[in-house]
């Protein structure tokens, strides 16, 4: 036993030193290949951050890194996809001693389409290091600049635009009421103001022999009879939306379920033009004129002052009375309301309502210059272009003046400012140009619908804005019409003329047509060509008298 005890300590010490000498309990850390980063990228030789517009359809995309790239890792780490998520095949080469990857699509890309090229962190260097941060670029290809339709004369093109757009009101008019549907997807919902624009379009179509006079009278009489016998009027005014089959009011919003004085004004503007145009001794035309006068004389304009205030109110509801509380005050699209209200044979307003309510005693004046163009009245930059269009489908702005403005200067300045804003393109949206311009109310892919203007610009162009400005900016508008038809025709031209809007920044084209956008195109083209609707409206004896009462001067009075 004594011998065994003496040998134990040397054995233990030997084991300890043997283990320490091997070093297995603290192995050295493994070698980790260094990560690497993107140094530069270029598309077709140009660096522009991570977003590229107007690329050709065979772009050369170069990603340059801080080290040599492992070729075998590229196919799994570089993804090229279109905006629908479909994979795009590409070819790869290398430059700068394999530190630059050159990507070229195998086949030509589609025009005016968005693509995304992504390099993930699965990309490896030749020493097996990983890309530190993924890289993604967005690429939008250029428009196809070839003509989509044969080139015709400008006069023939304007004929075509009027004819095709007219089909919205004629072929697509509601089968029961004849009124204009709100939009091409609205079913039984018809619009009062859009119907007024549609009636003016029918007059232009008759004058151009798109339809015959008898058919036009029959259709307009159908509309007038429906308004008289099927629809509810509220102190002579009609609702914004109506059921085209039954005549029932369709609320535009919860409390907007009764009279809409502005929409009614657009309707009356169209009806008065029809009264003046269909002026023969024929019994059907006499009946039409009589029925139009009954509707016109039935509007209690002065009642919409809400207890004799010095302003007109936009809405009245049988349930909510004046709760909408929206005064019709300028400057906006509603000058026609005051022109008609002052001209009424049965319920005229005094001049004080115009001066205090509409003109706000001069507070609607502007006088500032935008892009070197002075704007007499209205908001900064003029607002949406329908301000210069809806009321002036009938009111002739040539030589029209009052205390506050020269209205030809106002409207033409507004249109030119809108054009120059788009050309200058301060927000750098894709696709704005001397041919692609026009901001006004329309559908869009950002908010659904918006009154686009320089101070409410989200990249959406509305063709009606430029087209209906033809009298004010003939060169600029004609350039736009050619562009919309020849260059963009495969995207914009359809059954009822030009579709409502487009956005070339994130590539969207509306499939919609709206009555209040289609109508001004036909009417203002006609006013540019012949002045027909201006002549008709300004020939109304009531209008001459009423506008003179408000202090207007015009060579047409």
UniProtKB/TrEMBL annotation:
Assigned keywords, A-Z: Signal
InterPro entries in the record: Glycoamylase-like_cons_dom, SbsA_Ig
Pfam families: Big_5, Glycoamylase
Cleavable signal peptide: 1-20
Residue span(s) of domain Glycoamylase-like: 327-541
PROSITE patterns tied to this protein: PROKAR_LIPOPROTEIN
Domain SbsA Ig-like: 56-135
TM helices/strands, residue ranges: none
The protein's name in its UniProt record: DUF3131 domain-containing protein
């Amino acid at each position: 036993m004594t011998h065994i005890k003496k040998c134990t300590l040397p054995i233990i010490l030997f084991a300890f030193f043997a283990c320490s000498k091997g070093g297995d309990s603290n192995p050295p850390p493994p070698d980790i290949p260094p990560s690497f980063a993107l140094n530069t990228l270029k598309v077709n030789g140009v660096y522009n951050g991570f977003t590229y517009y107007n690329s050709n359809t065979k772009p050369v995309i170069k990603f340059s890194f801080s080290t040599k790239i492992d070729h075998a890792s590229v196919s799994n780490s570089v993804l090229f996809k279109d905006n629908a998520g479909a994979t795009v095949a590409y070819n790869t080469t290398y430059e700068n001693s394999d530190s630059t990857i050159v990507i070229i699509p195998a086949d030509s890309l589609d025009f005016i389409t968005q693509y995304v090229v992504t390099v993930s962190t699965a990309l490896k260097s030749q020493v097996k290091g990983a890309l530190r941060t993924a890289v993604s670029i967005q690429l939008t290809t250029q428009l196809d600049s070839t003509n989509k339709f044969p080139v015709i004369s400008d006069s023939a093109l304007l004929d075509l635009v009027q004819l095709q757009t007219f089909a919205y009101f004629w072929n697509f008019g509601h089968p029961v009421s004849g009124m204009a549907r709100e939009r091409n997807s609205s079913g039984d919902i018809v619009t009062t103001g859009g119907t007024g624009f549609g009636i003016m379009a029918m007059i232009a179509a008759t004058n151009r022999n798109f339809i015959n006079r008898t058919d036009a009278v029959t259709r307009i009489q159908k509309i007038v009879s429906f308004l008289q016998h099927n629809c509810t009027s509220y102190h002579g005014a009609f609702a914004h939306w109506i059921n085209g089959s039954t005549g029932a009011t369709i609320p535009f919003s919860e409390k907007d379920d009764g009279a809409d004085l502005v929409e009614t004004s657009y309707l009356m503007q169209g009806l008065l033009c029809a009264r003046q145009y269909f002026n023969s001794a024929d019994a059907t035309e006499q009946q039409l004129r009589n029925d139009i006068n009954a509707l016109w004389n039935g509007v209690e304009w002065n009642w919409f002052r809400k207890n004799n205030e010095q302003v007109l109110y936009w809405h009245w509801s049988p349930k909510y009375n004046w709760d909408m509380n929206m005064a019709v005050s300028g400057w906006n699209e509603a000058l026609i309301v005051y022109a008609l209200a002052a001209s009424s044979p049965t319920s005229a307003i005094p001049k004080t309502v115009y001066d205090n309510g509409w003109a706000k005693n001069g507070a609607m004046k502007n006088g500032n210059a935008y892009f070197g163009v002075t704007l007499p009245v209205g908001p900064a930059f003029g607002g949406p272009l329908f301000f210069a269009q809806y009321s002036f489908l009938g009111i002739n702005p040539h030589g029209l003046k009052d205390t506050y403005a020269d209205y030809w200067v106002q409207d033409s300045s507004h249109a030119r400012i809108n054009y120059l804003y788009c050309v200058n393109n301060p927000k750098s949206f894709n696709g704005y140009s001397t041919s692609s311009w026009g901001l006004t109310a329309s559908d869009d892919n950002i908010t659904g619908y918006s009154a686009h203007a320089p101070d409410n610009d989200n990249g959406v162009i509305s063709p009606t804005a430029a087209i209906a400005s033809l009298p004010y900016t003939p060169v600029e508008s004609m350039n736009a019409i050619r562009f919309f038809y020849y260059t963009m025709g495969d995207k914009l031209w359809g059954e009822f003329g030009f579709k409502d809007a487009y956005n070339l920044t994130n590539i969207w084209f509306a499939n919609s047509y709206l009555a209040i956008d289609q109508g001004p195109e036909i009417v203002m083209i006609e006013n540019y060509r012949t002045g027909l609707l201006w002549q008709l409206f300004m020939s109304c004896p009531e209008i001459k008298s009423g506008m003179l009462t408000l202090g207007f001067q015009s060579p047409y009075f």
